[in-house]
Amino acid sequence: MPVHVVPDEAAGLRLDQFLRRELPEHSRAFLQKLIEQGDVHVNGRPSKPSHTVRAGDKIQIEIPPPRSLEARPEEIPLDVLFEDNDLIVVNKPAGLVVHPAAGNREHTLVNALLHHCRGGLAGISGVERPGIVHRLDKGTSGCIVVAKTDFAHQALVAQFKSRDVRKIYRALCWGRFERSSGRVETVIGRSERDRKKMSARVSRGRQAVTDYRVLEQFPDFALVELHIHTGRTHQIRVHMAYMGHPVLGDATYGRKPETRNPKPEISVARLMLHAYKLGFTHPRSQQFVEFTAPVPEDMVKLCPT
Fold first, then answer.
1. Half-sphere exposure for 29 (CA within 13 Å, toward CB)
2. Catalytic residue list
3. Which of 96, 107, 244, 270 is deepest in the core (most CB within 10 A)?
């Protein structure tokens, strides 16, 4: 079984949090299930997800073979920004789930990619998440890179983990900004009031850093460019809500229904968040490459000319 030694800076984390840090290609729920099944050992003994790790602890992980339920190829149109033998960069439309999961076994980006790439995707993440090295929320549109080879998958995961990937988003955010640019730096963790949500107001969490720049201020909202230096779950949505400027269309972190839309004519059908640019070092050429996905028409139409 692979062994992960806990470094000094990770001491004090929950076991499931440490594993999520070490294995970002797997969800925390998946890792918690492994722990509960006894597939994770701390210094040779089974443990619990809530166990606090100490520096020098040796964590052994046995990931069982993937379930037989494989994602199936589907002929779904894709907006391909770049493709070669190692990877593919796609402009994901809003509303498309990235990979199959409970309740979304079909009609996902993975299903579309399996058809487009004729099954040629990296297999490290298992049969339900082939090639997936990072994710976008269902409601978020824009750039996403997927690995076609295990070589590319490992190199890309390492870059995301070391924060060497450049991630630029654009969003429409409620309200008038007092400052045209700035940095939001907090911890983000599971909300202590609602475990289904993330929050920047928690006693314990992981560092999250977002730089923002107002591109254009309108009467009721602003077009904002955001550069995220970390990749926490719902990071932009949580940070914008924390500032008092939630993303338009965010039913989870946005304003209460009665005040969400200051004017009746402002109506949105989805989260107004777009992964605008994605830059990374190409695993094969070792050259830095950057890709841009045009801002979707539904976001553009909301901005007064």
1. 5
2. 137
3. 96
Segment 87-117, tens digit of pLDDT: 999 999 999 999 987 667 789 999 999 999 9
Nearest to 133 by CA among 163, 167, 161, 162: 161
User: Which domains does the chain carry?
Assistant: 3-61 (3.10.290.10), 65-162 (3.30.2350.10), 168-275 (3.30.2350.10)
Q: What rounded mean pLDDT belongs to the chain?
A: 91
pLDDT-based confidence at residue 137 (cuts at 50, 70, 90): very high
- The DSSP string of 215-265 is EEE-SSEEEEEEEESS--TTHHHHHHHHHT-PBTT-TTTS--TTTS-SSTT
Confidence of residue 69 (pLDDT cuts 50, 70, 90): low
Sequence letter at residue 20:
R
Q: How far apart, in whole angstroms, are the C-alpha atoms of residue 153 and residue 277?
A: 19
Q: Are 206 and 248 in contact (CB under 8 A)?
A: no
SS3 letters across 84-132: CCCEEEEEECCCCCCCCECCECCCCHHHHHHHHCCCCCCCCCCCCCCCE
pLDDT one-digit tens code per residue, 254-300: 864 434 444 545 778 899 999 999 999 999 999 999 999 999 999 99
What is the CB-side half-sphere exposure of residue 305 using CA atoms within 13 A? 2
* Per-residue pLDDT at 1: 62
Helical pair 15-22 and 28-36, crossing angle rounded to 10 deg: 130
Could you tell me how far CA 120 lies from the centroid of its own chain? 23
